[in-house]
């Protein structure tokens, strides 16, 4: 780190981060934006604490830099400039604008065998996945007013940890994440120890801390918004390219990741699911990876695309027999230089497994409590 860089005061850091996150909010999907926004804002608090401890004990503070966030090319460079070296860890912003500690256990970096990728069979696989999605309509109920989408997942990630002048790879270990969201997206709840160490969780209800109540969009994919989308794959894909123009590393990668985000922490209506997969089949560079494993170890087959800028491959993992969506992960495939040289090929920078996706009648209600 450049020691000649002027330090911002805590108040200036808070304000800079809020302004930055406000500008970049449109570039992240609703679920992941909330998740990483909390981590970004709250890391300021951890850094301030470390600096105070260092001043008192004259010991260099230990810091971590988040290895991979969704849309890394958009978020991380701007963040570094705005916060003058502040980095990201597992802490959270609360409703009043303050911060509090949170976190999960850490361990060694997550690694995997890099499965071979091929373009052979991509249309056929996505056709099979689309057909399976269409056939699941009977078990995919609509969300009525007053009901909530409930998604439970297991997630983990790798990051670069720096202590003094030494850096190494580490991970936030696998942990449970629960999200509730109303059909219009204005009411929600999150329980995730990576962003809030309270077992009770915290509200995601809108408006946000700036007083904004976002309307449904591709970056805020409420059920009501998704229910109004066309089910024509060409029209959907054209809309994605148009509305995400200028986001991500390339238009094709951004389109692929946008569809992927809809699969993870949103609830597309049953009629829309097949159209999303058919749209994905039209994106250049999409491949099949026959050997993929989700966050809880379930083996599957992946629909994937390599982000040539970051060297990470985004993988959507499906059961090989039923073609049910299991989860997604990001795998480092090509080597990097400079600071990211530590991130070796085979590193899993982010992994997520969907455990339960359901419609429930109340906030913080789980499917087992509905019977």
Folded structure, characterized:
With about 375 residues, this protein is an alpha+beta fold. About 30% of the residues lie in helices and about 25% in strands. Helix 1 (about 10-25) packs antiparallel against helix 3 (about 70-85) and helix 4 (about 120-135) runs antiparallel to helix 8 (about 270-280). The radius of gyration is 20 Å and the shape is globular. The termini are far apart. About 45% of the residues are buried.
Strand content: 25-35%
Question: Which ranges are low-confidence, i.e. pLDDT below 50, for 5 or more consecutive residues?
Answer: 1-7, 16-102
- The total of beta strands comes to 14
Inertia-based shape? globular
| Overall pLDDT confidence | 78
Structural class: alpha+beta
Biggest sheet character: 12 strands, antiparallel
The rounded distance between the terminal residues' Cα atoms is 55 Å
Approximately how much helix is present in the residues? 25-40%
At a glance:
The protein is α+β, with helices and mostly antiparallel strands and 371 residues long. 29% of the residues lie in helices and 27% in strands.
Structural descriptors:
371 residues, alpha+beta, 12-stranded antiparallel β-sheet, two-stranded antiparallel sheet, 8 helices, 14 strands, 27% strand
Q: What is the fold's blueprint, element by element?
A:
Layout: H1 10-24, H2 30-57, E1 62-66, H3 72-83, E2 91-93, E3 99-101, E4 106-108, E5 117-118, H4 122-135, E6 148-163, E7 166-182, E8 188-191, E9 202-203, H5 223-227, H6 233-243, H7 251-264, H8 272-280, E10 287-293, E11 299-307, E12 312-318, E13 325-332, E14 348-360
Helix pairs in contact: 1-2, 1-3, 4-8, 6-8
């Amino acid at each position: 780190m450049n020691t000649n860089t002027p330090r911002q005061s805590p108040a200036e850091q808070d304000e800079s981060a809020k302004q930055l996150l406000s500008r970049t909010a449109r570039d992240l999907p609703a679920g992941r934006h909330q998740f990483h926004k909390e981590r970004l804002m709250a890391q300021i608090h951890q850094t301030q604490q470390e600096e105070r401890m260092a001043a008192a004990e004259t010991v260099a503070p230990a810091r971590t830099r988040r290895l991979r966030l969704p849309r890394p090319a958009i978020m991380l460079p701007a963040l570094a400039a705005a916060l003058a070296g502040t980095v990201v860890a597992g802490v959270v912003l609360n409703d009043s604008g303050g911060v509090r500690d949170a976190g999960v256990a850490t361990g060694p970096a997550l690694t995997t065998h890099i499965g071979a990728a091929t373009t052979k069979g991509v249309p056929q696989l996505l056709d099979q996945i689309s057909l399976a999605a269409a056939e699941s309509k009977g078990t995919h109920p609509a969300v009525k007013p007053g009901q909530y989408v409930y998604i439970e997942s297991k997630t983990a990630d790798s990051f670069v940890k720096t202590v003094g002048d030494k850096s190494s790879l580490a991970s936030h270990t696998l942990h449970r994440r629960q999200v509730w969201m109303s059909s219009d997206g204005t009411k929600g709840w999150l329980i995730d120890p990576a962003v809030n160490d309270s077992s009770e969780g915290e509200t995601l209800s809108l408006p946000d801390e700036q007083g904004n109540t976002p309307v449904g969009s591709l970056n805020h994919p409420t059920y009501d918004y998704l229910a109004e989308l066309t089910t024509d794959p060409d029209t959907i894909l054209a809309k994605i390219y148009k509305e995400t123009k200028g986001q991500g590393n390339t238009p094709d990668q951004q389109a692929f990741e946008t569809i992927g985000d809809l699969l993870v922490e949103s609830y597309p209506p049953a009629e829309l699911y097949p159209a999303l997969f058919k749209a994905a089949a039209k994106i250049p560079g999409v491949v099949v990876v026959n050997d993929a494993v989700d966050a809880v170890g379930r083996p599957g087959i992946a629909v994937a695309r390599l982000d040539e800028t970051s060297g990470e491959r985004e993988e959507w993992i499906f059961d090989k027999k039923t073609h049910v969506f299991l989860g997604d992960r990001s795998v480092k495939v090509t080597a990097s230089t400079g600071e990211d040289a530590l991130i070796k090929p085979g590193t899993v920078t982010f992994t997520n497994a969907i455990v339960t996706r359901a419609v429930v009648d109340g906030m913080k209600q789980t499917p087992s409590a509905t019977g």
